[in-house]
Design goal:
Blueprint: H1 2-10, E1 14-16, E2 28-30, H2 32-51, E3 56-58, H3 68-72, H4 75-78, E4 80-85, E5 92-94, E6 115-118, E7 122-124, E8 134-136, H5 142-147, H6 149-155, E9 162-171, E10 186-196, H7 201-219, E11 226-230, E12 242-250, E13 253-264, H8 266-275, E14 281-282, E15 289-290, E16 293-300, H9 301-312, E17 313-316, E18 331-334, E19 345-349, H10 355-368, E20 374-376, H11 382-391, E21 396-400, H12 402-407, E22 409-414, E23 420-424, H13 428-436
Parallel strand pairs: 3-9, 19-20, 19-21
Antiparallel strand pairs: 1-2, 4-5, 4-6, 7-8, 9-10, 10-16, 11-12, 12-13, 13-16, 14-15, 17-18, 21-22, 22-23
Helix pairs in contact: 2-9
The protein binds glycyl-adenosine-5'-phosphate.
The site of glycyl-adenosine-5'-phosphate has 19 residues, from β10, β13, β16 and α9.
């Protein structure tokens, strides 16, 4: 974990929030490379679950909502963790996080009685800070998909089964933090509320467990680092009939990456009652009115981001290339899927002091950047530049050398195998596109140099 945290900071993936002031617990900022990776994760999710499906539409709702929402949803009453205080060192912690009855800070064994601590951040709408104007930063994106249920269904003319999807920030005043991006106080979720006919909910539940799991596999997580966890009936959330988590094997142990919950008709019924609006769905043919059941697949972007860094991180002691310069050095390769990598292409002029090479490299860069996420790098020896790219997951390097000036061909180097091929500049875009779509480097039909 420390290696990932250090790489992420050094190369600009993730920084501690407000670091110049000493940082803040459980808050992080995504840097230039982290922003690219995070956006790629979100784009792939959106493409798969919204763009490529006719029956799922997306919304982008406000984070602050009418405070009644949180009464209806049960969050005011139930979104709590049991808070205890160590009588020896006064540390506050979650009762269910105490192991062997000992305080993790001082080893003390005497605690106060557990109190229910609400995890929602309270704030005020307008200048008067009284209870009448209080509301909360949303602790999940889900509720705005229920409050907008009718508006979305009618405006998009959707029929059950259909889904509303949303990506966005959520806020939780977690009692115990730590484990880097795993437990944040400001996090990002990607959720779908999938509305189905009562009675068909169990079938759809199984369907979404499979879809969610497959997404993680396709994003590059290894099957052996994933497992399903069925919540026992007695520990289900107040709204859930059944919940299955998809867990990932983090360095600190198995942890929830995502969840699939059968929320039944709980939310729509609650909001109907609290708002005095009829949120039932009317079947287009039979005209029957009913509350659809909701299957909710949800995942945290930050936890997936962390899992992908952990999964992709590989070290080769002594280096993969046995040049003098690389010998004895540790080489790091971040094996991210091509569509997720912050940079897909690095454009590298072999030398920076030959104007015709540099000019050609700039032309290639200008051509490629229209289609791909590209980085231009001319600083240092070519081997070092390759390794700088490998460390941040850059999928291919395109090198412009003296022969390029003569025959308009460039070398493409593959991050994972270090195999190299020679390709003519006019065929560069189609060749890189094929690689990004998953075509194997060696199957491209070019001789490996
Ligand atoms: N709408 C349902 C819901 O919010 P959840 O299991 O509480 O369910 C969904 O949260 C996902 O959000 C989790 O599977 C996890 O990936 C992510 N998540 C929850 N709390 C988090 C935190 N403190 N830091 C980072 N991610 C978190």
């Amino acid at each position: 974990m420390n290696k990932i945290i250090s790489l992420a900071k050094r190369r600009g993936f993730v920084f501690p929030s407000s670091e110049i002031y000493g940082g803040v617990e459980a808050l992080f900022d995504y840097g230039p490379l982290g922003t690219l990776l995070k956006n790629n994760i979100k784009r792939e999710w959106f493409k798969r679950f919204v763009q490529q499906r006719e029956e799922v539409v997306a919304i982008d709702a406000s984070i602050l909502m009418n405070p009644k929402v949180w009464e209806a949803s049960g969050h005011v009453q139930n979104f709590t963790d049991p808070l205890i205080e160590c009588k020896k060192c006064n540390d506050r912690l979650r009762e269910d996080h105490v192991q062997d009855g000992k305080c993790p800070s001082c080893g003390g064994k005497d605690f106060t009685e557990a109190k229910n601590f609400n995890l929602m951040f309270k704030t005020f709408l307008g200048p008067v800070q009284d209870d009448k104007n209080a509301t909360f930063l949303r602790p999940e994106t889900a509720q705005s998909m229920f409050t907008n249920f009718k508006l979305v269904q009618e405006s998009s003319r959707l029929q059950v089964p259909f889904g509303i999807a949303q990506q966005g920030k959520a806020f939780r005043n977690e009692i115990t933090t730590g484990n880097y991006l795993f437990r944040l106080r400001e996090l990002e979720q990607m959720e779908i509320e999938y509305f189905v006919k009562p009675g068909e909910d169990e079938k759809w539940f199984d369907y979404w467990v499979k879809e969610w799991r497959q997404f993680f596999l396709d994003m590059g997580l290894n099957e052996k680092n994933m497992r399903l966890y069925e919540h026992p009936k007695e520990s289900l959330s107040h709204y859930s009939k059944r919940t299955v988590d998809i867990e990932y094997k983090f360095p600190f142990g198995w942890g929830e990456l995502a969840g699939i919950a059968n929320r039944t008709d709980f939310d729509l019924k609650q909001h109907s009652q609290f708002s005095d609006q009829d949120l039932r769905y009317t079947d287009a043919e039979s005209k029957e009115k009913y509350y659809p059941f909701v299957i909710e697949p949800t995942m945290g972007v930050d936890r997936l981001f962390l899992a992908l860094l952990l999964e992709g991180y590989e070290e080769v002691q002594g280096g993969r290339t046995k040049t003098t310069e690389a010998t004895k050095e540790m080489e790091t390769i971040l094996k991210l899927k091509p569509l997720l990598a912050p940079f897909q292409v690095a454009v590298l002029p072999l030398v920076k002091n030959k104007p015709d090479v540099v000019k050609k490299a700039r032309e290639v860069f200008d051509m490629l950047k229209v289609n791909f996420s590209c980085q231009y790098d001319e600083a240092g020896a070519i081997g070092r530049r390759y390794r700088r790219g490998d460390e941040i997951g850059t999928v291919v390097s395109v090198t412009i050398d003296f022969d390029t000036i003569k025959d308009d061909t460039v070398t493409i180097r593959d991050r994972d195998t270090m195999a190299q091929i020679r390709v003519s500049i006019p065929r560069l875009v189609e060749t890189i596109s094929a690689l990004l779509q998953g075509v194997d480097f060696k199957s491209l039909g070019y001789p490996i140099l």
